């Protein structure tokens, strides 16, 4: 018990010893970067890069196998009339639909990600979280998106949150673990930084802003704080961790702003689907519309691309 208490105290001291976040400065820097303009050739590259980083997501109670199969078809061929459009990075679904997605994607190379651990609340026993994760991985999930218990974190029970992440990471086996912080409920940028470091110390392969079920979801300033955290973590430990903003990223302009933020904060090493993802459902169509506009000089009608 003494060792556990000592470890908890050490974790608390470390997390509360992290430099505080200048909220005004972070918001100002994010706003400044959002005004950056890019050349046409760079925009074309950015659109394709953003497409390749998308975790195409459906997380609704009305999801069906048919809807998931249709989404997988779109993931592989976002615009069937243009084979030069890249595939997306992953399909993200509930655990019971993982097998359907895995079969539909076949040998495409697109990952299957699954939310687990009592998504989106994260309020259940550790045994259930482990079982949920194992079920998703057994069904074929390449990645697991777990959600932390924000109540435990905000109560200062950092050791509990740390241990849950460690345990879920073990249950993932070879699958990558994305840890969802639900930043909209963490209240302060200091908490976002602490939660980011806690997740990374516990073994997260990615840290993710949001479930998409709580407002505000992803924002540029919060993502800036998380990018600073992964940058500093790699400098301190030598291990690189990815970042995934999710929820509310709907337009090409939004996506490009996030790519600029990544480049200017963490650096070019993170400008890859291996290290940066965008959780989205409606973003892909806007990227495709902008891509077609650049190629043909005109926009397609709103019903040209399939609705997700």
TrEMBL record:
Catalytic activity: 2-deoxy-D-ribose 5-phosphate = D-glyceraldehyde 3-phosphate + acetaldehyde
Originating organism: Phytoactinopolyspora mesophila
Signal sequence coordinates: none
Protein name listed in UniProt: Deoxyribose-phosphate aldolase
GO MF term (any one): deoxyribose-phosphate aldolase activity
Matches recorded under InterPro entries: Aldolase_TIM (IPR013785), DeoC (IPR011343), DeoC/FbaB/LacD_aldolase (IPR002915)
Transmembrane feature ranges: none
Pathway: Carbohydrate degradation; 2-deoxy-D-ribose 1-phosphate degradation; D-glyceraldehyde 3-phosphate and acetaldehyde from 2-deoxy-alpha-D-ribose 1-phosphate: step 2/2
């Amino acid at each position: 018990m003494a060792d556990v208490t000592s470890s908890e105290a050490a974790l608390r001291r470390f997390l509360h010893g992290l430099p505080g976040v200048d909220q005004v400065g972070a918001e100002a820097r994010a706003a400044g970067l959002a005004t950056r303009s890019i050349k046409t050739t760079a925009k074309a590259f950015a659109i394709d890069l953003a497409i390749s980083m998308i975790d195409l997501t459906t997380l609704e109670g009305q999801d069906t196998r048919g809807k998931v199969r249709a989404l997988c078809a779109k993931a592989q061929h976002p615009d069937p009339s243009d084979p030069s459009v890249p595939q997306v990075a992953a399909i993200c679904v509930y655990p019971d639909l993982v097998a359907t997605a895995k079969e539909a994607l076949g040998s495409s190379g697109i990952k299957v990600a699954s939310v687990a651990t009592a998504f989106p609340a994260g309020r259940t026993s550790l045994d259930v979280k482990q079982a949920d994760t194992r079920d998703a991985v057994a069904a074929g999930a390449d990645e697991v998106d777990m959600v932390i218990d924000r109540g435990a974190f905000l109560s200062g029970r950092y050791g509990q949150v740390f241990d849950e992440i460690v345990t879920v990471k073990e249950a993932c086996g070879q699958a990558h673990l994305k840890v969802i912080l639900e930043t909209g409920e963490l209240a302060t940028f200091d908490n976002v930084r602490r939660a980011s470091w806690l997740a990374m110390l516990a073994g997260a392969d990615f840290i993710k802003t949001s479930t998409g079920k709580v407002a505000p979801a992803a924002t540029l300033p919060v993502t800036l704080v998380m990018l600073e955290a992964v940058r500093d973590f790699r400098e301190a430990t030598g291990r690189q961790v990815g970042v995934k903003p999710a929820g509310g990223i709907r337009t090409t302009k939004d996506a490009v702003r996030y790519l600029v933020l990544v480049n200017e904060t963490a650096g070019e090493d993170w400008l890859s689907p291996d290290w940066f993802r965008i959780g989205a459902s409606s973003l892909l169509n806007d990227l495709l519309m902008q891509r077609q506009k650049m190629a043909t000089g005109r926009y397609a009608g709103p019903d040209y691309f399939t609705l997700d």
